[in-house]
Design brief:
This protein has 17 helices and twelve strands. By secondary structure, the protein is of the alpha+beta class. It folds into three domains: 120 residues, no CATH class; 100 residues, PAS domain (Beta-Lactamase, 2-Layer Sandwich); 234 residues, Histidine kinase-like ATPase, C-terminal domain (Heat Shock Protein 90, 2-Layer Sandwich). The protein has a five-stranded antiparallel β-sheet with strand order 2-1-5-4-3, sandwiched between helices. A hairpin with a 5-residue loop joins strand 11 and strand 12. It binds adenosine-5'-diphosphate.
């Protein structure tokens, strides 16, 4: 309130007039009326008023004028040997001198503060301060630029109403964090004056008073709308690329997949025929018929599952993170590469850790990674004739922090120079290779907060491994 009043005075053009009127009034009363009081002491009010609209030399001049007026009144109304009058005059002069000194000191402190506040206008960040009722008390030029709202319009408004803030989590939780740690940072969506949305990386700092009570919140924000948009476009491109390479892999796996579906279908036919035969007997063998029908149902379900998995792989669905049993994901991937295992005459060995804790991930994308690594491993063993072609898939828990999956082959191995560029897009040593498989694997694993790498085995061949953190968060959502 006091602050508002002084701003009102400071901005009012009436202030110089009031100061002069005050000075004249004091001089007249001091000179004309026979008051016993030291009226000239009131000149301090004139000096304080002057400090609101005059710079330092102006204040000094006002002070000098007040001193002259004090002395003049004394000379006009008192004899020089009037002891009491002289004491009153000296008292007033001392009051004027001390007030001038303090006022100038205060003025220079205010100037320093104003200079510092002006510094905040130099930054491109949007900075504003709001009180505990969320009312804006300071608004810098960066905020004016970002939101299109001037300082005059913003000060006094409720921040989250003015900016129509959308929070990433409940505002109660944010407030609790702020009160607990004194800080908060996160991404907010604000609405600019023209109605467009701005994604803002926001950092809050809580200021407390001497008694530790929350007093003000300093909010700094950077406009990250463009980066956010670029990130989303990138994520979209990643999803499309993943889809294209998945479709290509699917094309290559058609034989396997066909086999996986044909086998249960053939089983259904065989069991159906057997069932009929049991029924046609003079005494129908109902137990046998029941067995045949149960096998038909089992095969039907198997074919259904394969087709569902296929459709999931072929579909361009957005990334969906959920707790996954990676052993299950490995087993599902294996059903889709059965034919490759046969064709490449590979011995497939599984070493899956029991009771693997779940990892957070996208089932289809992780299946794609495992299929890619397995197919690469099998292709690397194509030329191997003098030793077993063995593909070992392992799962395990590492340091109780991450889940480790490895695919180990006994193939041709990788030249040291190629090791560095394996995961680069379009790197391939295969005549018909696209060189996208490993690059996609890496982007999928990294989007899951994990890492993937290759190493040469002690014996022949290569091991590809990837690690996923337990409860990993997916970093983007295409
Ligand atoms: P593509 O399979 O289309 O070539 P990838 O990105 O999957 O694309 O693989 C890139 C290259 O990495 C392959 O061409 C091959 O030279 C090498 N590579 C990948 N996996 C293995 C492996 N298990 N053993 C040896 N070389 C491999």
């Amino acid at each position: 309130m006091a602050g508002r009043l002084s701003t009102l005075f400071a901005t009012s053009s009436l202030l110089p007039v009031i100061a002069v009127a005050f000075a004249v009034g004091i001089f007249v009363i001091d000179t004309v009326t026979p008051l016993e009081a030291a009226v000239a002491v009131l000149y301090v009010v004139v000096i304080m008023l002057a400090s609101n609209f005059l710079p330092r030399p102006g204040v000094l001049l006002t002070s000098a004028i007040c001193l002259v007026l004090t002395a003049l009144s004394f000379l006009l109304t008192h004899e020089l040997d009037d002891g009491t009058g002289l004491v009153k005059c000296l008292l007033s002069i001392a009051a004027i001198g001390i007030t001038t000194f303090l006022t100038l000191k205060n003025q220079s402190a205010n100037m320093t503060l104003r200079e510092q506040a002006r510094l905040l206008d130099l930054t491109h960040d949007a900075i504003f301060v709001r009180d505990t009722n969320d009312v804006i008390t300071y608004w810098n030029r960066g905020a004016e630029k970002l939101y299109g709202v001037t300082r005059e319009e913003a000060v006094g408004r409720v921040a989250h109403v003015l900016l129509q803030t959308r929070f990433p989590e409940s505002s109660d939780k944010i407030l609790a964090d702020l009160l607990h740690t004194g800080r908060w940072e996160g991404e907010l969506v604000h609405t600019r004056r023209d109605g467009t949305r701005a994604v803002v990386a926001s950092r809050w700092a809580l200021k407390r008073d001497e008694r530790g009570r929350p007093q003000e919140i300093l909010e700094t924000g950077n406009d990250v709308t463009a980066e956010k948009h670029a990130q989303e476009t990138l994520a979209e491109a990643h999803a499309q690329l993943a889809h294209v390479t998945r479709a290509a892999t699917l094309g290559e796996l058609t034989a396997s997949i066909g086999h996986e579906v044909i086998q249960p279908l053939a089983g259904i036919v065989t069991n159906g025929e057997a069932g009929l035969r049991w029924l046609k007997r003079d005494v129908p063998q109902l137990e046998e018929v029941r067995g045949a029908i149960e096998r038909m149902i089992r095969d039907g379900k198997r074919a259904d599952q394969v087709i569902r998995r296929l459709r999931a792989l072929a579909k361009k669905a957005p990334m969906q993170a959920m707790p996954l049993d990676l052993n299950e994901v490995i087993n599902e991937a294996i059903t889709l590469v059965q034919r490759e295992v046969l064709n490449y005459r590979v011995t497939l060995q599984l070493e899956l850790a029991p009771d693997l804790p779940p990892a957070l991930g996208d089932r289809v994308e992780l299946q794609q990674v495992i299929i890619n690594l397995m197919v690469n491993g099998m292709q690397a063993m194509e030329t191997v004739v003098d030793r077993p072609r063995s593909l070992v898939v392992c799962s395990g828990l590492h340091d109780a922090q991450e889940i480790l999956i490895s695919v180990q082959d006994s193939g041709s191995g990788i030249a040291p120079d190629d090791m560095k560029r394996l995961f680069k897009a379009f790197f391939t040593t295969k005549p018909n290779g696209m060189g996208m498989g490993l690059s996609i694997c890496r982007s999928i694993i990294e989007a899951h907060g994990g890492r993937v790498w290759a190493s040469s085995n002690a014996g022949p061949g290569t091991s590809f491994q990837f690690a996923l953190p337990l409860n990993a968060g997916i970093r983007h959502e295409p």
